[in-house]
Amino acid sequence: MKVAIVQEQVDVRRGGAETSTLEMARQLASLGVDVTVVTGDWGLGIGDWGLEIVEGELGKGARVGRAVRFVAEADRYCREAGFDVVHAVTPCFSCDVYQPRGGTYVEAVERSVARAGGPMRRLIKRVGRRFNRRQRFLLLVERGILTGREPPFVAAVSEYVGRQVRSAFPDFPGERLHVVFNGVDVEAPAEDEEQTRRSAVRRELGVDESEPLVLFAAHNFKLKGLAELVRAVAVIPDLNQSPALGRVGQPHLVVVGRDDAGRYARLARRLGVSDRVRFVGAVDDMRGFYAAADALAHPTWYDPCSRVVLEALGCGLPVVTTRFNGAAEVIEAGRHGVVIDSPRDVKALAGGIVACLEPELRAGCRAGAAEMRERLSMARHARELTALYEEVVAAKALRRV
């Protein structure tokens, strides 16, 4: 089966969505699918992933012009190349499967507006979004393909994204909407390796083994709720007062990611917690930080299905996140972590962190890590996609009869 995966930009330095696309493509190829990645901006060498890459010429100029040109070139190439299935991550009119790994553009706009402070700021943000011509163009393409006479199948990476499609496109045929829950590649570390990594990272950070350490990892600090998280760390009372936790110190927070830390470091100083918040920048290998941490905090304003949450669960870390994250759907309260209603609820976030640091919850997460790795694996995701491709091919054959 020949499959094209269409995504405008594919560069793992940009974040989780690009990494997910490449891991997905590699797993599909391992199942015998003939995969070609069609992109306009390839950030790594082709040999890095062992995949066939077709890179378009986007040219220079405004981002909207590059997006328009890419969609047109990708459509033309996919129609001429004779693929059995065109799987679009960036929406294009020739697609048979649309997988909005970043969620629908309608929801992305709404959640961006929602995080603005008050009614007037939200109004200004909404008006400002109208001038994001690239986003408006892709929103129109998405609307065009999902409201057409023969829309593509949709592979939603979470039920959250499925609800977005149902809400924004109420006439979309339900039988064409499939939830193919997101997946990640997480290796099972040997226990001695994990302890070695834990000790090494904690030594670098200057955090004693007995002190609780909370991990935050993202490249967009504002969207993922870092300001709210720093405030939560500041309002957590001395954990020595918690009978469930025993005598441990107040939690430390380590922030991993490429974004500018300046305003968040200033916030930590203003709140008197700068000695417990450490910024380490971007890292190539997260395994040491997953091993070093006792919990992951991801109070995101919007995530269709966060990779870092799935990776943390696969590593046995409890997680506190928000209902605006599709990955929250696999978190069982009291077993995997805590899901709060809003990043704005700093007290609920602080309470979620405390709950995730309880020894019983941490031990349960660790004991269930192997099960979560299988349940959340990219291999499982690829198998489900292959089944969907077969359904697509059968439907196309039926139309030709």
**From N to C, what is the helix and strand string?**
EEHEEEHEEHHHEHEHEHEHEHEHEEHHHH
Mean of residue pLDDT values: 88
> Taking strands numbered 1, 2, ... along the chain, how are they ordered across the largest sheet?
5-3-1-6-7-8-9
Largest sheet: 7 strands, parallel
Indicate the proportion of strand residues. 5-15%
* Apparent shape: globular
CATH-defined fold name of the largest domain: Rossmann fold
Our count of helices gives 15
Residue share in helices? 40-55%
**CA(first)-CA(last) distance:** 20 Å
Our count of domains comes out at 2
Low-confidence stretches: none
Task: State the gist of this model.
With 401 residues, this protein is of the alpha/beta class.
What does it look like?
- The chain folds into 2 domains: 2-184 and 377-400, 3-Layer(aba) Sandwich (Rossmann fold), CATH 3.40.50; 191-375, Glycogen Phosphorylase B (Rossmann fold).
- The protein has helices spanning 16-30, 63-81, 105-114, 119-129, 133-146, 159-168, 191-205, 226-235, 262-270, 287-292, 307-314, 346-356, 359-367, 369-375, 378-400; strands at 2-6, 9-10, 34-39, 41-42, 52-55, 85-88, 97-98, 153-156, 177-179, 213-217, 252-256, 277-281, 295-298, 319-322, 337-340.
- The relative contact order is 0.12.
- It contains 15 helices and 15 strands.
- The protein is α/β, with parallel strands linked by helices and 401 residues long.
- The mean pLDDT is 88.
